[in-house]
């Protein structure tokens, strides 16, 4: 454990609510491992105070911050510079403060892609199906498009949101075939089986609604597709259980969490993050929380 003192460099996470964040655990272990005199703290920020946040970080000499729900878009107008990836995704999840200026990045898309590459998924030429059209979907769609996917279909409960996402990214990637649909049992039944990747970016399946899934149980999953769920609490979601039953490769949401954090860590510190160690710490923390929940239920 790092002993805080007058030289400690400080980063944190701006969100509302932010009580359940795993990022302090993940970055804490990384700072310790590299013997960096840094610390990472949760920074609860109600929406009406977003306008003051970047100035406050400067005033208090922070090196940077992560930004999470619901501030990833709202924070952008208060930053001096936004990197092109974050601009294209339309959201910032990482801030760096340097030389009196503030810089915005988005490492979510990188995180998703790294997690997929890690299991041997080949994005080049891939046919992708995204479930959901919120912020996480935008980052995933952008990173898959930038990595050379050939087709990307976005299915969302609110179909207008899927249309908006696709229209936006079509301009940035004119060579990719984009499409969108309403997310319903009927449209999923009609998904053809020439699909290499399905990603759940919705909150369906997340604690405390573990019994839910974005994919109806009586609809077969595309043959041979990699099934990725960005939900990591629980680790094995109902959607991933369906993938397992169908004999398909599943990717849980911890990889994305770790790698978006590892990239933020690199932006702040200039060091490669110890990703394997961060994963261990996150898994241990999730297991502890699970155990505490079970004890509360008894
Ligand atoms: P994030 O930044 O995590 O992507 P978000 O921007 O709030 O969060 O997006 C949440 C996504 O989950 C959206 O695609 C949302 O669908 P809508 O656009 O129709 O709201 C989807 N979602 C949330 N709850 C859902 C539910 N019960 N059924 C289907 N989709 C759901």
Report on this model:
By secondary structure, this protein is of the alpha/beta class. It has two domains: 9-106 and 257-297, Leucine Dehydrogenase, chain A, domain 1 (Rossmann fold); 120-248, NAD(P)-binding Rossmann-like Domain (Rossmann fold), CATH 3.40.50.720. Helices cover 39% and strands 19% of the residues. The protein contains ten helices and twelve strands. It has helices at 23-33, 50-59, 84-89, 108-118, 135-146, 159-172, 185-189, 238-245, 254-269, 275-297; strands spanning 9-15, 38-44, 64-67, 81-82, 94-98, 101-105, 127-131, 151-156, 177-182, 197-200, 226-229, 250-251. The strands form two sheets. The chain has a six-stranded mixed beta sheet with strand order 2-1-3-5-6-4, sandwiched between helices. Strands 9-8-7-10-11-12 form a six-stranded parallel beta sheet. Strand 1, helix 1 and strand 2 (38-44) form a beta-alpha-beta unit. Helix 1 (23-33) packs across helix 10 (275-297), helix 4 packs across helix 5 (135-146) and helix 9 (254-269) crosses helix 10. The model has no long low-confidence stretch (mean pLDDT 96). The site of 2'-monophosphoadenosine-5'-diphosphate (ATR) has 16 residues, from helix 5.
Strand content: 15-25%
Tally of helical runs: 10
Shape: globular
- The CATH class of the largest domain is Alpha Beta
Give me the strand/helix succession: EHEHEEHEEHEHEHEHEEHEHH
Helix-strand category: alpha/beta
Largest sheet, described in full? 6 strands, mixed
Task: Please report the distance between the alpha carbons of the first and last residues.
Answer: 33 Å
Number of DSSP strands?
Answer: 12
The bound ligands are: 2'-monophosphoadenosine-5'-diphosphate
């Amino acid at each position: 454990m790092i002993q805080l003192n007058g030289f400690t460099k400080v980063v944190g996470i701006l969100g509302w609510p932010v009580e359940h964040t795993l990022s302090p655990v993940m970055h804490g272990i990384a700072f310790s491992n590299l013997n960096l005199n840094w610390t990472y703290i949760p920074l609860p920020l109600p929406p009406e105070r977003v306008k003051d946040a970047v100035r406050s970080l400067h005033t208090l000499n922070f090196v940077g911050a992560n930004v999470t729900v619901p501030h990833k878009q709202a924070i952008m107008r208060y930053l001096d510079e936004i990197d092109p990836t974050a601009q294209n995704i339309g959201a910032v999840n990482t801030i760096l403060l340097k030389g009196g200026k503030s810089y915005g990045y988005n490492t979510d898309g990188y995180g998703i892609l790294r997690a997929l590459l890690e299991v041997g998924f080949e994005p080049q030429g891939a046919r992708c199906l995204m479930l959901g059209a919120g912020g996480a979907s935008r980052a995933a769609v952008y990173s898959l498009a930038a990595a050379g996917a050939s087709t990307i279909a976005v299915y969302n409960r609110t179909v207008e949101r899927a249309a908006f996402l696709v229209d936006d990214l079509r301009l940035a990637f004119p060579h990719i075939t984009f499409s969108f649909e309403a997310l319903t049992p009927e449209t999923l039944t009609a998904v053809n089986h020439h699909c290499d990747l399905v990603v759940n970016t919705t909150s369906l399946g997340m604690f405390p609604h573990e019994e839910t899934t974005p994919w109806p149980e009586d609809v077969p999953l595309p043959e041979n597709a990699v099934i990725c769920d960005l939900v990591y609490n629980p680790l094995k979601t109902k959607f991933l259980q369906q993938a397992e039953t169908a004999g398909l490769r599943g990717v849980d949401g911890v990889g994305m969490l770790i790698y978006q954090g590892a990239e933020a860590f690199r932006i702040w510190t200039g060091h490669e993050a110890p990703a394997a160690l961060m994963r261990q710490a996150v898994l241990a923390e999730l297991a502890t929380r699970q155990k505490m929940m079970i004890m509360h239920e008894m």
